[in-house]
Amino acid sequence: MLSSRLSVRTLSFVAALFLVAPSLYAKTCELVLQGNDQMKYDKKELVIPKDCSDVKLVFKHVGKMPKAVMGHNVVIAKTTDISGIRTDAMNPKKAKDYIPQNDKRILAHTKLIGGGESDTVTFKKSAYKPGGDYSFFCSFPGHAGMMTGKLVVK
Ligand code: CO
Fold first, then answer.
1. Paired sense of beta strands 106-109 and 75-78, if any
2. What's the pLDDT tens digit per position in 27-80?
3. Looking at the domain that runs over 26-153, which CATH code has it been given?
4. How many A from CA of 36 to the centre of ligand 1?
């Protein structure tokens, strides 16, 4: 009698876990972006699907030119913050590899890479508001005009 009561309790506990599980469910979504020697990304838009908890951005420089000449990175920020970040990226007192240091406006970024290299960055989707206005761009001097895209958060 005691053991059957326990097992009923155990079963309802297991059932409760299944009900709770979807909200604890972690899912890493992978985004892939390329940059090339023509100073272009291969995508104008990246989309973070709704059901992701984490986002893994894989960035690949598919060109041959070195970092010092045709360096690329991916910087993600609110679209309204990009102009200010671009200005600070050019300031050697504030930036390292054209990334302003300790800058809270930057939501995520890869390192600066040259041809044949790649870099991956993983970040939490919870830092982004669904439907918010976000962009990604390359902070290498003179590149953002050509290398900018929209980050859509579902
Ligand atoms: Co670039």
1. antiparallel
2. 999 999 999 999 999 999 999 999 999 999 999 999 999 999 999 999 999 999
3. 2.60.40.420
4. 8
